[in-house]
């Protein structure tokens, strides 16, 4: 536990690199289109509990893993963002199924340490293009849903993005009191 706290407060944070394809403003709402390369992620899933009930617990599991709770005892530093995949129902309410992921830092991509927590798996994710909307503050389910709705309205009905899932991203440690960065990502449909 101490390793996780030390790692998240004092460790180096590696932000996932991307290629900015465009930066746009439509109806007063600014968003970006970004391309991320494929990479390995540590992932943990949950079903049956709400976003706000379970995300803190799942994020802690991943922070403990990258903080040294792995078979090699390797503290890897931290990576940002933490990406929460959510599955909205037709009415916009999030289903009780979600996945939380954190990118394995670059120097561990070839051979990530083995998780000691059986709930954590290492997953190779393909590259992706996303529409992103950034916002501040502490974000829970209601904030992410509101921003997702704002991005949906901004992009319009014909924009080529997946509507059955989206990503809720957080860049900051839980104890950071101000200047927080959160994003909603919509996965662009590939042509």
Write a structural description.
With 191 residues, the protein is α+β, with helices and mostly antiparallel strands. The protein is built from three helices and eleven strands; from the N terminus they run αββββαβββββαββ. The strands form two sheets. A nine-stranded antiparallel sheet has the order 2-3-9-11-10-6-7-4-8, with helices on one face. Strands 1-5 form a two-stranded parallel sheet. A hairpin with a 5-residue loop joins β6 and β7. The protein is globular. The protein starts with a helix and ends with a strand. The N terminus is likely disordered.
Mind sketching the topology for me?
Layout (H helix, E strand, L loop, with lengths): L1 H9 L2 E3 L3 E8 L2 E8 L2 E9 L3 H16 L11 E3 L1 E7 L5 E10 L17 E5 L2 E8 L5 H15 L10 E5 L11 E6 L4
Parallel strand pairs: 1-5
Antiparallel strand pairs: 2-3, 3-9, 4-7, 4-8, 6-7, 6-10, 9-11, 10-11
Helix pairs in contact: 1-2
User: Any low-confidence stretches, pLDDT <50, length ≥5?
Assistant: 1-10
Distance between the termini: 45 Å
Number of strands: 11
Adjacency order of strands in the biggest sheet: 2-3-9-11-10-6-7-4-8
Q: Which series of helices and strands comes N to C? A: HEEEEHEEEEEHEE
Please estimate the helix content.
10-25%
Q: Which structural class best describes the helix and strand composition?
A: alpha+beta
Instruction: State Rg.
Output: 16 Å
Multimeric organization = single chain
Number of continuous helical runs = 3
Strand percentage lies at: 35-45%
Shape: globular
Q: Largest sheet, if any?
A: 9 strands, antiparallel
Round the mean pLDDT to the nearest integer and report it. Answer: 90
